[in-house]
Design a protein that fits this description.
mainly beta; single chain; 1 helix; 3% helix; 4-stranded antiparallel beta sheet
Length: 128
């Protein structure tokens, strides 16, 4: 099993930056990659960013976050980060990290049902 715990969420103003973290424990060496998703009230959970362990490749949701958000990892700390810059009110959501056992295509990294383990989420609120 793999356990994920997110932290670092909070309330910020539009234009601010925030970095959320996801600490991993358990069978982490069996996983193929990690992803960040978010879910706003009344909306479906959507893909934000992902990282593939084997190549270090990173993927981002094209229009909404690319260029503003950065996913990274610190293997020694067993932690994955999501650095969020130039935050907007529409970025307000619960942010979830997720891990997957299967490598797969780029497209599969953007699909939430391709992930096997999920954290409990951390709230990010951006005021205008």
């Amino acid at each position: 099993q793999v356990q994920l715990v997110e932290s670092g969420g909070g309330l910020v103003q539009a234009g601010d930056s925030l970095k959320v973290s996801c600490t991993i424990s358990g069978r982490i060496f069996s996983t193929a990659g990690m992803g960040w998703f978010r879910q706003a009230p009344g909306k479906e959970r959507e893909f934000v960013a992902a990282i593939r362990w084997s190549s270090g490749s990173t993927y981002y949701a094209d229009s909404s976050v690319k260029g503003r958000f950065t996913i990274s990892s610190d293997n020694a700390k067993k932690t994955v980060y999501l650095q969020m810059n130039s935050l907007r009110p529409e970025d307000t959501a619960v942010y979830y990290c997720a891990a997957r056992d299967y490598t797969g295509s780029y497209y599969s990294f953007t699909r939430r049902n391709e992930y096997d383990y999920w954290g409990q989420g951390t709230q990010v609120s951006v005021s205008s």
